[in-house]
Write a structure and sequence with these properties.
binds 6-diazenyl-5-OXO-L-norleucine, alpha+beta, 19 strands, 15% strand, single chain, seven-stranded antiparallel sheet
Length: 569
Amino acid sequence: MNRPTARLSSCLVACLLIWTPAVVVAAADKPAAQHDVTSSRGVVVSVSREASEVGIEVLRRGGHAVDAAVATAFALAVTHPAAGNIGGGGFMMVHDTSRCTTVCVEYRETAPSAATKEIYSKLNGTSRGHLSAGVPGTVRGLALGHEQFGRCCWRDLVEPAVKLAANGFSIDEPLAKSLNGWIKRLDPYPEARRVYSKPDGSPWQAGDRLVQPELAKTLQLIADGGPNAFYCGPIADQIVAEMQAGGGLISKADLACYRANVRRPIHGTYRGYDVFAPPPPSSGGIALVQMLNILEQFDLATLKRDSAEGTHLFIESMRRAYFDRARYIGDPAFTDVPVERLTSKSYARELAAGIDRQRATRSDELGRELLTATEGPSTTHFSVVDADGNAVANTYTLQDSYGSHVVVRGAGFLLNNEMTDFNLQPGVTDRDGRIGTAANLVEPGKRMLSSQTPTLVMKDGRMVLVTGTPGGRTIINTVLNVVTNVIDFGMTVRQAVDAPRLHHQWLPDVAKLEPGRVSSDTHRELESRGHKLDDKHKQGDAHSIWIDPATGLRHGAADKRISGHAVAE
Ligand code: DON
């Protein structure tokens, strides 16, 4: 395996750098997105055309699914700036066929060593800015995945992102809208405004070209110097200077000490399928397996997905799993998480027996606690399968859209605002969904609780489904929707991704439904059972791959809720 070297390259791309903010080259029509693809070889599905194409090119050159995932992740840091990142963190589920192994590469951010509960409890309501940034994990995490599974040279995986940043790419309508909406709110963040605005100050339009020369230089340093350029080298210096200028806490030692981990995934079974998803510090694996275990007690297929009875069981399972999430789950280095019990079939049977089949349980009868900050619409998930059947489900995030809004001066990238995923008000739990339990309070060096749930589903030892999504606390339920759509309701992956979704998170005690999730009769029936419903909801962006066990064919389905692009070798 080739390792990154510390040599600073003077290659062609560096020569192309022009030291200006975002540059518009020309407006040009962009080809329509491709949402579906079928292949007997590799498939990559992500929110971005350019990033999916970078990934598939790596597979064409014989790369492992993890190589493609690393290259796709770096490309998304350029083409999907609301969530693609090098200044955030995430979780990468990997299945390697030759080693017969399934692992979670965990690269969640950590609290800076100077972070205290006191500092953050005073910041309640402030979800952006320098203090909201955790120590980024993405670059170490991608390097760890590469070190464990990669076949390609590290530099070759970062260079495509360098080129996209240096040469620019044509933006689509959703990105133009997203940037325009965000830039309006950037008065307190002049560096972000400088980097992401059109030089003439006019609004972005589909077809404009976004060029990010400073990000290109940063990525070039990572291509040449590997993760140490970010954590111990020139980029670390820039991050620390930014923190000092803006009153943030991340220090040189925090960056130098940051480690990503290879962790054993949470494993559950569901109607003969094996389900693998991330362990703590994500709550995703535990809550997903817990909900599947409860639902397995019922014959969902007969009850029908959109019936009042079936929907009632989904809501009640979600309510119970999210209550336990709030009570028990945090960074396992700081909190004893009862993983075995929460994911056991016997506990699920107890919970299932406690469900009243006719009446909604009141969430505040289940317990009184909690507070968390609101969760914004931006994380991003992508799925990869290669010709050998190796699979990657990767979810990573800046937390809210565009993270802390802090762009590291001169380095052209955004820092996360992941500190807001801690329970910021110890002891404060309310019906609005705020959580104040001990498991997820701020402590120096601790990883904040996540809901990210990149998921791999296998049948008889063979991969069948690779999925995951953004969406804050809705993430786990979106994955539950997709998995049960396929397993219980016999949907194709296209139908499973398209089908309107349902979310309940214990508190607030409201079931959120995408339009069309239930009929108006079912809606009325659920209300008469005591459920509060909100059906003006939009949920997730689940770029997924189904591998037909009979033929081995891979069916990639891009979620159409934002944009999405599926490509094949
Ligand atoms: O890790 C988490 O649970 C959150 N930081 C994810 C945030 C998110 O998904 C935002 N929006 N889509």
